[in-house]
Amino acid sequence: MLMHMETLQNAHVRAVDLTVDAVRPITTDQLARRTPCADWNLAELLDHMTVQNHGFAAAAAGAGADEDLWRTGAAREDPVSDYLKSARVVTAAFAAPDVADRSFSLPELSRDQEFAGSQAMTMHMVDSFVHAWDVARAAGRGLDPDPELIDRTLSIAEQIPDDEARRRPGAPFGPPLAVPAGAPPLDRLLALFGRSPAWPNEDPRT
Question: Coiled coil: which residue ranges (predicted)?
Fold first, then answer.
């Protein structure tokens, strides 16, 4: 269920702000640390997040079909600074009042269809929320999102199907994990995206 656009834009900003808060304290010696994202260390995760921000911003401007925009693997001299700059770019792109009415080309998801602005923003919001947690945990810190943002993101997570795409190499979100009855909303949200809330002590990859 998609939110009202003004509410969605606000939630999107808050999710990107979570990533900024998680990324800003990262130090150079932490960049080689493993993360909850399979096969990515922290530098590689920041590269992915930076590329996604620029890709979604370009898509908002009608240029998302250029697949070169979505390529990762750059040897970044300052991954933290690059990410923080990209966060400002994507936030500004999604602040446009008519962004909901635009069509987004997102070739990573489909080369055959375009997506409504509200769909694109919802996807980027969810991606930002989860990756903020990934970054924070990789750096040995926690994440403290506001309860409303957790609830909104959880309601979206509950609607994402558990299909074969989530089991392919490089999938952003793995198959959902079981959580104990009565688990807090953040734990349930993380489990729905294949993250163990206790990571790295309980890593679904091992």
Answer: none
Amino acid, single-letter form, for residue 104: F
- In terms of C-beta density within 10 A (0-12 exposed, 13-18 middle, 19 or more buried), how is residue 68 classed? exposed
pTM above 0.70, yes or no: yes
Q: State the pLDDT at residue 102.
A: 92
For residue 103, list its beta bridge partners.
116
Distance CA 200, CA 195 (A): 10
**Residues 125 and 8 sit within 8 Å (Cβ to Cβ):** yes
DSSP-based three-state secondary structure for 89: helix
Helix (H) and strand (E) counts in the chain: 6, 2
Domains of the chain: 5-192 (1.20.120.450)
- Of 190, 194, 137, the closest CA to residue 171 belongs to 194
Cβ neighbours around 47 below 10 Å, total: 21
Name the helix (H) or strand (E) containing 104.
Answer: strand 103-104
Report the candidate in 146, 167, 156 with the shortest Cα–Cα distance to residue 125: 156
